[in-house]
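Appendix B. Raw example, untouched.
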Amino acid sequence: MTIRTRNRLNILLFIISTIILFSEIFLLLWQLLTKNLNIQALYSSKSTFFLTKYNPYIVLVSLFYQITYVSVSSMILFRSFEKTQASDIVYFCLFLIACLVDSFRLLIPLLNISETYSNLLIFCGNATVFARLMIPLSLLCTTILGTIEQRQEIEKNIFIITLISIFFAQIIPLNTAVTCSNYSVDFAFKRTINLTSMIIIAASIIYLFVENKNHLYSQKTTIGFSLLAIGIYMLFDSTNLLKFTIASVFLSAGTFLYLRQLHNQYLWKE
């Protein structure tokens, strides 16, 4: 993949995510003006403390933040690595695409399609499963396939990752009768997917740590990568103010630290 193609991909992702963001904001305002917005608490909170109490509106805020994160990060990628042949960024762009796809669950509360068994609800459910599979795989590839030797295999690797995610997202059963507390459709093998994702992320962090140590690079990329990985998974489950605050801080700080230090490494190489 050439630098020009990658830059076009970043710009396209920025445009699409920004359009989706403003479209969702318009839809939210329209539902509020027409008084059709009916955000129901899916679960009764055991906690009464405002920081840890379940709040469906916090879920909405976290989803809007997630789309904004994709939009801002894609522009940062373009501005920071516009003239740099960085294979890592291609896979990080896949990570952002997966985050954007996951945000489609925002349509469930905005359009009040929970338990409707509609094609749109099924699409949102499949999108969530796709994102849960794509995110750990793309982050893993960011660390282990970002070498110079792997640059000629980028298109093939992207195709394989995407195909695997789409395939399993289609065959994993959805339970459209159950909408989870984060407004995602319940799906089978959730524990297995979560456990596998944790193992993949842990392996990615260990690999990045060892590579930085062997090449005498700063471990700031490892710290940033760890923070953003923890942050995105916490953001998926941001059902109260405390979780959302920690998730947004970790994700923002981790992404900034990781990309900035990665940019410095490429400047040092060149």
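End of appendix B.
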